[in-house]
Amino acid sequence: MFVTALRRPPRRSSRVLAMGETHRARRRRLAALVAERDAAALLVTRLVNVRYLTGLDSSRAALLVPADGPAVLATDGRYAGMAAQVCPELPVVVDRQVAEALVKRAAEDGLGRVGFEAHDVTVEHHTALLDAAEVELAPLGRLVEELRMVKDEEEIGLLREACAVTDRAFEAVLPEIRAGVTERAVAIALERAMVDEGAEGPAFESIIASGPNGAVPHHHPGGRELQRGDLVTMDFGALYGGYHADMTRTVAIGEPAAWQRDLYDLVHRAQAAALAAALPGAETKDVDAAARDVIADAGHGEAFSHGLGHGVGLEIHEAPLMGYDKTGKLMDRVPITAEPGVYLTDRGGVRIEDTLVVRAGGPELLTTTTKDLLVL
Ligand code: ZN
Ligand code: ZN
């Protein structure tokens, strides 16, 4: 239909050129890391990493990034046109065997030691790559994931909009969250509202956990109807421009009992402590501890059964992972979540989660929905 054709931006629009520069800069930073590891190139096979480095969002592509010299993209015939449009500056090899084609190219170019993404390539695929050409394949760790941890302002802008969409969707759906409505219906209403507000879709499968189901951190929303006296935990987020928002709010259906208010206040205080600790240079395990100590001091340490949070970006869970057993330091412009929770078997639970950006002057909250306990 020509409607689609009309919507397509003109080839090599100024936006494509601007994004081209962004992606070129990312590839330059990666090339420097590849050179540091004494490799001649990195074969990038994780699709999300190819997208980060080229802008191409596809289901089949790979990228060869030499330490020195221009990168080469490979994709199949379905995406060749899109590749030419999105990254016109890159030579494109059109071949269904994308990684094999690039390994052959590396051998032809005399590149000796080629890094690969060992966390992505299967043993079977590794054998096929070695059969394809005479190259030395070296696991180089998660180089692109390391680069992706610190976001540029363009990425933060997309994440900010993903979170704004999430906030607006929650506000729109609030009147529908009441006794008699099923968890599943709330999930669908939230997901529809996010799309109405501009999302490409939900960033992940929404969690709606009511009453005793709130004791299960990753409860799958089902047919249980919300009841007066429930706490309802809703964990959801919008996907926008490829970036993932992640927010959790817990609300009360009808006037909450004293233990429910106490539990809510506890998790709220724990989350505030984590936010205050999320500064550049902070050890991730110390940020986790800031929240965990508050909960442990109240005697619920065992009931906070997961890590504090995780990085967000082109994936819903990415570096850095934040937990008591995790190492690493936060840096300026790293988006993370802070999501402490307390889960009491057979009774219910509370989790409060924001997406935020670590900044020198203190965190920039991207999800801004109130954290006062809403009584619906
Ligand atoms: Zn979440
Ligand atoms: Zn999360």
Structure commentary:
The chain has 376 residues and is an alpha+beta fold. The chain folds into two domains: 146 residues, Creatinase/prolidase N-terminal domain (Creatine Amidinohydrolase, Chain A, domain 1); 213 residues, Creatinase/methionine aminopeptidase superfamily (Creatine Amidinohydrolase), CATH 3.90.230.10. The protein is built from eleven helices and 19 strands. A hairpin with a 3-residue loop joins strand 16 and strand 17. The N terminus is likely disordered. The site of one zinc ion has 6 residues, from strand 13.
Summarize the structure.
The protein is of the alpha+beta class and 376 residues long. The chain has helices spanning 2-7, 14-36, 47-54, 80-86, 98-108, 123-132, 143-149, 153-173, 183-196, 258-277, 284-297, and strands spanning 41-44, 61-66, 72-75, 92-94, 113-116, 136-139, 201-202, 207-210, 231-236, 238-240, 243-244, 247-252, 309-311, 318-322, 334-338, 341-344, 348-351, 354-358, 364-365. The chain has two domains: 2-147, Creatine Amidinohydrolase, Chain A, domain 1, CATH 3.40.350; 153-365, Creatinase/methionine aminopeptidase superfamily (Creatine Amidinohydrolase).
